[in-house]
């Protein structure tokens, strides 16, 4: 199953750090994650030189997983030029276009 995540909750850091990323790194997540869209303060999770950002960058490099930060969210936080390599910024139309190229089964928000 191919899934994409919309990362929007206040608990996203914990969910990614303690559950999703370790499962993806060990190959036992149970679904192929084709993309992650980060909104609000969760855009900070894509910053360079942070543990979560660097781990996501490595997963992107290995799998081609889309890493997208909400453009307005990143610009408001003045981090649009400090995201990990491979992460881009954009809004929902960019997300739709990126996910259109994969056979997506579900979008999950956390």
UniProtKB/TrEMBL annotation:
Pfam families: DsrE. It comes from the Bacteria. InterPro entries: DsrEFH-like (IPR027396), Sulphur_relay_DsrE/F-like (IPR003787). Gene3D superfamilies: DsrEFH-like. Transmembrane segments: none annotated. NCBIfam families: DsrE_rel_SaoD. This is Sulfur reduction protein DsrE.
